[in-house]
Amino acid sequence: MPNIWILRIGHRPQRDKRVTTHVALTSRALGASGIFVDTKDNVLEENVNSVVDRFGGEFVIETGVHWKKKLKSFDGEVVHLTMYGERLDEAMPKIAGDRDLLIVVGAEKVPPEVYQAADLNISVGNQPHSEVAALAIFLDRLTDGKNLYSDRDGQMTVIPNERGKTVVEKHT
After folding, report:
1. Cα 29 to chain center, whole Å?
2. Handedness of CA 108, 112, 113, 119 (dihedral sign)
3. Is the pTM of this model over 0.85?
4. Beta-strand (E) ranges in the chain?
5. Are the CB atoms for 118 and 11 separated by under 8 Å?
6. Average pLDDT for residues 5-28, to the nearest whole number?
7. Which residues contact 6 (CB under 8 A, 6 or more apart)?
8. What is the DSSP code string of 57-75?
9. H helix count then E strand count, the chain
10. How many other C-beta atoms lie within 10 A of the C-beta of residue 32?
11. Closest of 115, 59, 103 to residue 77, by C-alpha
């Protein structure tokens, strides 16, 4: 499968730090290669990289990215997740699947240029809800759920079980 990238637009570090962290962690957990965030945020980078270091996998975070330039220069398909787009179930078959994918996730009102630049504007439901939820549903459908329990060969692994917490730590 080609690379999946996330572009987070409108990140406000003081207001959105937890939500943008959740966008990044959801992206990583559900198979994205990395995330670009429009506002420079060293703390966000450190927090996400700490998870990657502990739980493994290859995931890149870059903050301070000029979103307009990223949209114009991206070599692949651009999908914008929005409440106002085409229904998810109708749009999914239109995704090429053989090209890298850039998924745009807004934090505040998204500029009209994003809607115009996107190959697809996709609605994940028609009710107000979290962009984290929209991203999770979209990525799960895109990857047929194959990343939910994939091992990333990290220093830590959580083993799902009915009761209790099972965390395996690898010692080097």
Report:
1. 9
2. positive
3. yes
4. 4-9, 34-37, 60-63, 77-87, 101-106, 120-123, 156-158, 167-169
5. no
6. 91
7. 23, 24, 27, 32, 34, 35, 36, 102, 103, 104, 105, 135
8. S--EEEES--HHHHHHH--
9. 6, 8
10. 24
11. 103
- Quote the CA–CA distance of 9 and 36 in Å, as a whole number: 9
Angle, CA of 5, 39 and 134, to the nearest 5°: 45
Question: Looking at the chain, how many residues does it have?
Answer: 172
Model pLDDT for residues 109-154, shown as the tens digit of each residue: 899 999 999 999 999 998 888 999 999 999 999 999 998 888 888 8
Query: Bridge partners of 157?
Result: 168
Percentages helix, strand, coil for the chain (3-state, rounded to 5) are 35, 25, 40
C-alpha 79/C-alpha 109 separation (Å) is: 16
For residue 103, which amino acid is it?
A: I
